Amino acid sequence: MDSVFKALSDKNRRDILSLLKKKDMTVGEIKKHFKITGASLSHHLDILKRANLVTAERDGQFIKYSLNVSVFEEIMKLFYKFFK
Amino acid sequence: MDSVFKALSDKNRRDILSLLKKKDMTVGEIKKHFKITGASLSHHLDILKRANLVTAERDGQFIKYSLNVSVFEEIMKLFYKFFK
DNA sequence: GTAACATTTAGACGTTCATCTAAATATCTA
DNA sequence: TAGATATTTAGATGAACGTCTAAATGTTAC
Q1: What domains does chain A contain, in order, with CATH numbers?
Q2: pLDDT of the residue at B83
Q3: Nearest by Cα to B5 from B58, B48, B57
Q4: How do residues B27-63 score in pLDDT, each as one tens digit?
Q5: Chain B residues in contact with A2 (beta carbon < 8 A)
Q6: In A, which residues are within 8 Å of B5 by CB distance?
């Protein structure tokens, strides 16, 4: 649970999640929306992956990132329990 | 919004919120549940206060902290929009 | 007003974090 | 196999963070 809150505490990472909510994207596609280097982006994606918020799958030369929807529903439940 | 996620990213602070969910508490009462110094606790309470997650009111010699319930409902809505 | 208690503020210290550049790895195409 | 493109890894740097001790502030009771 800690890794999830830590992951969400950075604005860039929350923006990445918002992008992936719309559709799966390669690192390069995601990168267009940010002003950080590829290395930094890769770091953020790694943190999101470790928190189980996204999954990654290689598609040839590219790597496609997706929201891990089932974990998101788990988190919603936890939040609900936590806040209500 | 950033200050809220930042505030929630620390386990001690989430535990403070869980305590305050049950009842209002003075700093001294809260302190009994943690192994940190009063200064550190005061720092955490300040972060929660700035994020609008708690409110503080002096009651004589003591200061009583409470969950800011209305803001919590706002946050639940935002989370819901963010995750669904 | 001074002593005792409750809490915050100031300043310091080590750790974690976001970012960068440079180099490494993986894949595709010619 | 060589060169180009996509992404990650390694290592460094400065800022932010959580914690501490010591001192300051606010309040109560004698």
Answers
A1: 2-83 (1.10.10.10)
A2: 64
A3: B48
A4: 999 999 999 999 999 999 999 999 999 999 999 999 9
A5: 11
A6: 5, 8-9, 14
